[in-house]
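Curious: why this fold?
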Amino acid sequence: MATLSQLLAIPDLGLRLIQAGRRDPELTWGSVTELLNLSEYLEGGEIIMTTGLALGCDDPRWRDFVASLSRAQVAAIGFGIGVNHDRVPPQLVQAASTYQVALFEIALPTPFIAISKAIAELLRTDELRETRNALRIQERLLDSARSE
């Protein structure tokens, strides 16, 4: 299983954890959005990346944004600083804390696509590991059947 901690540990991305979630969530995908409510479009386990284009620093709607992502069981929110906001908005940090949703900072010059590619690579590596394990088990079963 590919996890948020594995993504955050990739040094070239320069990601900084602001708020931990309930656990180290498994990743299913990465998505970029500036929509305020996209929970109906999610399946859970996604990293949602945003620059906060639609909301000001002190906008109380950050709470609704995080609440909808919490209901959708996202893995984390990645917030891009240096485009719209110079820092992660305090209202977003507070909402992430309230709903126990992991939140990390994405600083320039790291593009969101680099994070999406890193997530895809983590998922591919995990799938390859599981396939190899399944193959080893199959080989053992065949060896066992041959020796009977």
User: Anything to note?
Assistant: The radius of gyration is 18 Å. The first strand starts at residue 16 and ends at 19. Helices lie at 4-8, 61-71, 90-99, 112-147. The mean pLDDT is 92.
